[in-house]
């Protein structure tokens, strides 16, 4: 895949893990947006995500760094850093260095997932991470779902926007997933958190949909996009489920993909084993999309059929607000600017 023409440094919330991967006292190494980062969990349970390098002499805090109560102690000379990235102790001097600070990132843990806020301009979060239960306002809570199944794929050549565009792409369902075409009932791209609802009508039993034997069952999906990085969905009709998908840029070409699939208990009509099979099927369908996204070349302007025009135009216009240059972003331009500024991307 060629380097995407869209910036891989969009603004927003991005999933960087699942909460249970980072226990109390753990220091977890990761790379996102071209930066080496660490996530560490203090004794109180609070999670901090910060740049990985100690401001003293530059040790990587993910190698030898240690959680001590509520602070992180560097493995090189024992300097201690707070959850705000401030130096709070130099063990061989009676005053800390108050001037130096390690960059920290806003973090939210929600639906057992860890999200960080990324913004190249350093702005604070201006929208919220969607909640796969609370935001559908139907009173359902996590206890009413089976244990979720997860998919984690590292460093795929996928841009987050490709995944979002799937949400307006009615025609792909038939060809990629072997389902009926989707009929969209809602496209709302007015705010950074956007909404897409659609239905798929499945025909069972008869030779065709006009056959008297045929029963039609609808599967309905409501999706909430929290910026470009995170989408939560609710499906009902044929199968009650929820999904959380997180696409997080690692560098200028690749993203990590995380997907969590919940199946409803449905009055315990399904056993745990059945739910795991259904969950795996939901993941299989998502993997069918992944193959396309991984090898796709972003087409701009695309050749759209008349019926595709409104949805794609709306989502592409909406997406622009998350890019550093505000005009759709260009990885090449961001790279050139960073080079001109003496950066080493
Ligand atoms: S490099 Fe971290 S304490 Fe010296
Ligand atoms: Fe799809």
Observed structural traits:
alpha+beta; 17% helix; globular; 4-stranded antiparallel sheet; 345 residues; 2 domains; binds FE2/S2 (inorganic) cluster; 7-stranded antiparallel sheet; binds fe (ii) ion; Naphthalene 1,2-dioxygenase Alpha Subunit, Chain A, domain 1; 5 helices; Rieske Iron-sulfur Protein
Structure summarized in a few sentences:
With 345 residues, the chain is α+β, with helices and mostly antiparallel strands.
Blueprint (SSEs and pairs):
Blueprint: E1 12-18, E2 27-32, E3 35-41, E4 47-51, E5 66-68, E6 71-73, E7 80-81, E8 87-89, E9 104-105, E10 107-110, E11 113-118, E12 149-156, H1 160-165, H2 172-177, E13 182-188, E14 193-204, E15 215-226, E16 230-236, E17 241-249, E18 255-263, H3 272-295, H4 306-319, H5 331-340
Antiparallel strand pairs: 1-11, 2-3, 3-4, 4-9, 5-6, 6-7, 7-8, 10-11, 12-18, 13-14, 14-15, 15-16, 16-17, 17-18
The structure holds FE2/S2 (inorganic) cluster and fe (ii) ion.
Structure description:
The chain has helices at residues 160-165, 172-177, 272-295, 306-319, 331-340; strands at residues 12-18, 27-32, 35-41, 47-51, 66-68, 71-73, 80-81, 87-89, 104-105, 107-110, 113-118, 149-156, 182-188, 193-204, 215-226, 230-236, 241-249, 255-263. Helices cover 17% and strands 32% of the residues. The model is unreliable at 329-336 (pLDDT under 50). It has 345 residues and is α+β, with helices and mostly antiparallel strands. The chain folds into two domains: 22-109, Rieske Iron-sulfur Protein (3-layer Sandwich), CATH 2.102.10; 129-318, Naphthalene 1,2-dioxygenase Alpha Subunit, Chain A, domain 1 (Alpha-Beta Complex). The radius of gyration is 22 Å and the shape is globular. Strands 12-18-17-16-15-14-13 form a seven-stranded antiparallel β-sheet. A four-stranded antiparallel β-sheet has the order 2-3-4-9, with no helix packed on it. Strands 5-6-7-8 form a four-stranded antiparallel β-sheet, with no helix packed on it. Bound molecules: FE2/S2 (inorganic) cluster and fe (ii) ion.
């Amino acid at each position: 895949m060629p380097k995407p023409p869209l910036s891989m440094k969009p603004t927003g919330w991005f999933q960087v893990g699942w909460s249970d991967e980072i226990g109390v006292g753990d220091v977890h190494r990761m790379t996102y947006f071209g930066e080496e980062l660490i996530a560490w969990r203090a004794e109180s349970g609070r999670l901090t995500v910060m740049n990985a390098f100690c401001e003293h002499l530059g040790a990587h805090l993910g190698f030898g760094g240690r959680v001590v109560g509520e602070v992180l102690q560097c493995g090189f000379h024992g300097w201690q850093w707070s959850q705000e990235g401030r130096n709070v102790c130099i063990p061989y001097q009676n005053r800390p260095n108050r001037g130096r600070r390690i960059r920290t990132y806003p973090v939210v843990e929600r639906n057992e997932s860890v999200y960080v806020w990324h913004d190249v301009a350093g702005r604070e979060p201006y929208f919220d991470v969607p909640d796969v239960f609370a935001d559908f306002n139907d009173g359902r809570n996590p206890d009413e779902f089976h244990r979720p199944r997860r998919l984690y794929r590292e460093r795929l050549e996928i841009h987050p926007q490709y995944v979002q565009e799937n949400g307006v792409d009615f025609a792909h369902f038939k060809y990629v997933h072997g389902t009926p075409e989707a009929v969209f009932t809602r496209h709302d791209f007015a705010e950074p958190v956007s909404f897409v609802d659609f239905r798929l009508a499945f025909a069972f039993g008869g030779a065709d949909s006009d056959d008297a034997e045929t029963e039609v069952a609808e599967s309905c999906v409501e999706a909430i996009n929290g910026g470009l990085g995170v989408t939560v969905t609710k499906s009902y009709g044929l199968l009650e489920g929820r999904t959380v998908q997180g696409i997080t840029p690692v560098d200028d070409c690749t993203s990590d993909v995380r997907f969590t699939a919940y199946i409803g208990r449905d009055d315990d009509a399904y056993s745990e084993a059945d739910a795991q099979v259904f969950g795996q099927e939901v993941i299989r369908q998502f993997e069918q999309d992944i193959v396309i996204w991984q090898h796709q070349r972003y087409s701009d302007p695309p050749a759209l059929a008349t019926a595709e025009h409104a949805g794609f135009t709306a989502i592409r216009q909406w997406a622009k607000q998350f890019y550093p240059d505000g005009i759709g972003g260009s990885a090449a331009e961001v790279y050139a600017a960073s080079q001109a500024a003496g950066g080493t991307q």
